[in-house]
Design brief:
The complex is a heterodimer. Chain A is α/β, with parallel strands linked by helices. Helix content of chain A is about 30%, strand content about 15%. The termini of chain B are far apart. The chains are: A alpha/beta, B alpha+beta.
Amino acid sequence: MITSLRGRETRPQTVHRPGAKRHETPASDWVPTTCRMCLVGCGVLVNAKDGKVLNVIGNPDSPVNRGRICAKGKSGIMNHYNPNRVMRPLKRTTAEKGIGVDPKWQEISWEEAIDTVASKMRKICAEDPRKLYLQTWGASQEFTTWLGVLRPAVGTPYVQTGVSPNCGKTVHSIQFLMAGGFHQEPDLAHCRYLIDCGTQMGVATREGFNHQVPDCAQARERGMKFVVVDPIGNNAASKADEWLPIRPGTDAAFGLGILNVLLNEAKIYDAEYLKHFTNATYLTGSTGKFARDPATGKPFVFDQSDGLIKVFDDPGVKEPMLEGEAEVRGQKVKPAFELIKARAAEYPAERVEEITSIPAKTLKRIAREFGEAACIGATVLIDGVEVPYRPVCLDWDRGPQGHKHAWHHTWALAMVNVVLGAVNVVGSIHSTDTASNFPVKKWPEAGQDGILMSSGSTHRGGGHFTAFPGRTPARPERWDLFELFPVAAHTRTLVPEVYKDPGKWGIDHKIEMVIHSPGNQVMGGWGDVRAVIDWYKSIDLVVGFAVEINETHELDDIVLPMCTYLEEGTFDDSSVYPFPAVAGEGVGVCQIQQKVVEPAEGIRTIGAVMTEIYQRAGILDQVYDALNHVKGMTPANALKPGECYSMDEVSDRIAKSRFGNDYGWEWFKENGVLVWPRTVDERYPGRFVNARIALYLENFIDRGEELKAVLDEMGLSWDLADYEPIPEWRPCDSFERMRRGEIDAIGVNYKLPYAYGGFGHANPWINELCNKLPRSYGVLINPRLARKKGIKNGDSIWLESPVKKVQAVAHVTECVHPEVVGIAGNAGHWAKGKPLSIGKGVNFNGLLPYGIEMVDVISSALDQCAPLKVYRA
Amino acid sequence: MAIHCDPAVTETVAPGSAKPSRLNVKVVFMGEIQGWAGRRELELELPPESTVHALAQRLLSLCGSGFAQHALTKEGAFQPHVAVFVNGVQIGRLDGTKTVLTEGQVKLMLLPMYEGG
């Protein structure tokens, strides 16, 4: 199967700009590894001499970035040589915790540090593993491996794999529903019309952006139309054919408006796809539930070829009705598609303009252009195989997802692709992880009602909770109230909320220990920082792995120094985005992270530290057993009870289990990147997966009713209107406040391509970039708002939300919606261990009101519209 | 829900006619699933050629409402978030829920969940 291998013979100088001096260093002096300055995991080549890192460049062998590297990646050297780096384990010597409180750190030995953590872990595992909370994201995939494994090993449900509890709230769930994969990206090699809603995909952000940037540029050269829908005229908008400034929190209305034009006005939709690859034909009664066969429980369809009602998977069904009306046992029924059309009809362009501020004429034109570009019915030959050609993509991610009604915003947008049959086919939106034949077989299955059921990335050691069919709600037993969100993927958002009054929710255990990565969770998206800090303060033992002391570490009881990515090796094929390949690309990829220089004196690898903790806590054999399953170890390579392994040995066993004995750790260290050809069905799995998409979410009705019963028992009254099968637009709190004139603007966050979340501002090269590009640390204000408030460009202003007031520098620009303040990145640091970043920019998340009333009742996404009063300082 | 588990509970089910051709399967519950099932493991005799889906149906009747609520769909199939390993191999690499069981061990666990970044 492995027929294409590339490696060290590659010439790293090919990455240099034309005309620039070519690199003269021999290829053998460059070590292939994976950058860990953000989540993407680009392939890089590192030049080191005498134990010193001299340069980092992109690895042309890696399909993830094809030799390109961004400013963040380049600045990895400065993280490695960080003068504020933690070099010894530290112990807090004062009980008081909070912003500005000196922890009075005392250096301690590794022996004492490990023993303290291991003792607590032994106690917790003996008593109740739910007392352990793990935060695993950031700076090293070793956290995912060595901390994440505790979920299957000892049974704590609290493995928070995102720094931000808001990340991935709906995008992954919808990918499982829509395509059976994990993440999404456009097939830019073939796309001809791209609408980018609330993300800067292809320009400045998202997974694999170092290949998406040139791909998007080439697509634009080829004639792809690029439309950006975003409150901010950001990097993406600057490259777009059209920028449509949208009022925050109105994406569902935009999506439904597009659907209305397509389904009801232009009549452009892929009827054959909808009939055979979705549940759009399932007959639906007046209650919104499917009419089902009493004997089998299967939904009915109406076969127009003979006028008979049949179960959906009856082999005799020839022409299932998509539009019209039928009768089942005397009751009028309609295909679910009719209900979707009817909902869309409630969103004529003129109403959408009122809600979104996007002109009706523009919406109608864009929708028609998009539909016509979809080439419904067209096919194309790829390697001799005929596959559908739908060169249109409506992409979305973090923007529409960060709202009170996140599910409905994002599902409405996703449906635009589905009705055009533009999912996982040539030119369309793609799931990055739908199906594979190699190195591990994974094809999604049809489950209940013939619906696609997939837990995304299970073939590579990770799972996911899915929205279909959902779980049975129950009284909560967990700190994140997971049981009250039966279709959510994760609900970590709720933890600080429960801390306010655990008894109210019936929680019977305390979180006694947190172990966290350096991802800086305090600044990571819970909103009101005070609530987050209060929760951290309540925990007996907070343990943090650190390169430098950030805001979260200031609350730690024990700090454990860690390697930079240049000092640590790991075979972790689950970590490279997009795994196992770029959308539609002909090769799959696996690349490793390897040690380039020895760790600084006294620094140990995460794997070595955690292994010793597990050994002393008496759970190492359990960890090995779980790891053997998670990593898919073959019997010959399985970790054996009672043994101790170096991290290189562990990597070798994982690599050989995955790719065979010829491709062990030594092979990967030498070659860095392994690529292999992918078959057409792997590349374009859309019509090769034998399952239907749940376009109509009937299961939401049942889960909503069950949830209401539980809430009634608990004496709680939540608005559960969102538990309905079809998207609807509902306003968020900030939208209503604006309408009532209570606030001046809505604060909206946008990303910078050279900073990553709350990470990087302390790096001198990143800081220099941010200083030179003034919007990085300033805020964007439209001239209309500026005039109204008497603000001039460069003025110092106050931004006042209900939970925090911050000072910022105003940058008056047309590149922001008139009702919005644009806030970049996540700066505004205060930790003394990051002196370069203190007091610069705005900590956006800290402006967000936090509480259960602010989260999406479906996904638990926190509303990320900051209601702001704006005035001169 | 009690998260504690008694020491390994062994339950032999429905020996019935004790045909020699019956399939012996040990089901091991790992991590949180121990709490849902209220036990660490379970020994079963199943008809030959039983599939993973048939095992789920059997566990529905044996492991109580907590297990059903968390691990199974309303139809009695394994929820997508439950990772099923047959003799060490995840069923996704075999034939999914149609995988035919063989003599030996089935492990049920929740893998580390990918949530975002």
